[in-house]
Amino acid sequence: MEEQMTEFSSYHSQPIAASDAQAPLRVHVERVVREYFATLGDELPTDLYDLILREIELPLLTVTLEQTRGNQTKCAQILGLNRGTLRKKLKTYHLMS
């Protein structure tokens, strides 16, 4: 599983063209997932859902915390999370200060 995460993380490093930068996030996610499957050939990944959620959740939490200058209450409000849930996620990703 950890190996899959590393492979997925390092795989989608292709730059986004300026014309594609305004496309909805789902378009970028779909492209990356399709490219990921294409590289696997006949091999099937396991826990892909959790893998992708972790890939998206970490930068989402990091950037939102930066934008709120570390204010967890504001961060939780922006994300639509309970503050306790946010704190649990921050601990999971070692983002607690």
Automatic annotation (TrEMBL):
InterPro entries: Fis_DNA-bd, Homeodomain-like_sf, HTH_Fis, Trans_regulatory_Fis
Coiled coil: none
GO terms for biological process, alphabetical: regulation of DNA-templated transcription
Superkingdom, natural source: Bacteria
A molecular function (GO) term: sequence-specific DNA binding
Residues passing through the membrane, by range: none
Domain DNA binding HTH: residue ranges: 53-93
Keyword DNA-binding in annotation: yes
The keyword DNA-binding belongs to this UniProt entry's keyword annotation: yes
Keywords on record: DNA-binding
Family statement: Belongs to the transcriptional regulatory Fis family.
Protein name: Putative Fis-like DNA-binding protein
Organism: Psychrobacter urativorans
